[in-house]
Amino acid sequence: MPTWQLACRAAREIEFAVMPRRCAFCGAARRHEESAICAGCEADLPWVSEQCTGCARPLAAKPDDGVLCAGCQDHPTPFDVAAAPLTYEFPVDAAIRQFKFHRKLHYASAFGELLCKAAADLPADIDALLPVPLHWLRHGIRGFNQATEICRPLQKASGLPVIRNVSRIRRTHYQSGLGSRERRRNLAGAFAVRGAIDSRHVLLIDDVITTGETCAQLARELLAHGTQKVSVLALARA
């Protein structure tokens, strides 16, 4: 083996010994080329086995092709596809809260990896990504947009452009604790698009889908500005 390869191997071993990557959930040492989630923790995550493609709601059984859940039949969503690989249960719910509200940014790479795997089953004609925007004041207080952080690995893996001319112009109240009607009223006029959207099929990225109203309001704004289709990918579905 050439000397330079021996040196690189030695450097990697030193890096692993001194600064190992850690599993985002249990803290087990991980080499930097390995996943940010160990195999044991990944197996224990609350995976969604079947879900409605219209709203990502977990279902007890696989629906027939093209059949949406009763909620989507009564109130169709503006999404082409909605997906979330996990349910919003422990340990995912606790990890997301730590990530968003306690600045535990080491979760971002792990969440991003999970989104990358889930994105493999989405429509092939998606041509742009849009992390759900935060209002500038909330962004400033929190210091980051959680949707942007978990979108970074997906953008890097896919090479798709990120739309940057969409903003949240109203500082809405937190959606948690609100019913569907209150959520809709809370989000009315919350988003704005500067100029046109050149992309034909935009993929919205968010951490959690609860009722889907946030992404629905944003999708309608995009569709009104030239986008033909909007899909949603979130880490978890409540």
Question: What can you see in these coordinates?
Answer:
The chain has 238 residues and is α/β, with parallel strands linked by helices. It has 2 domains: 1-44, no CATH class; 45-237, Rossmann fold (3-Layer(aba) Sandwich). It contains 9 helices and 9 strands. The protein has helices at 3-18, 39-44, 70-74, 92-101, 107-119, 136-142, 146-158, 180-187, 213-223; strands at residues 21-22, 29-30, 82-83, 86-87, 128-131, 166-168, 191-193, 201-209, 229-237. Strands 3, 4, 5, 8 and 9 form a 5-stranded parallel β-sheet that branches. The chain has a two-stranded antiparallel sheet with strand order 1-2. A two-stranded antiparallel ribbon has the order 6-7. A hairpin with a 6-residue loop joins strand 1 and strand 2 (29-30). The mean pLDDT is 88.
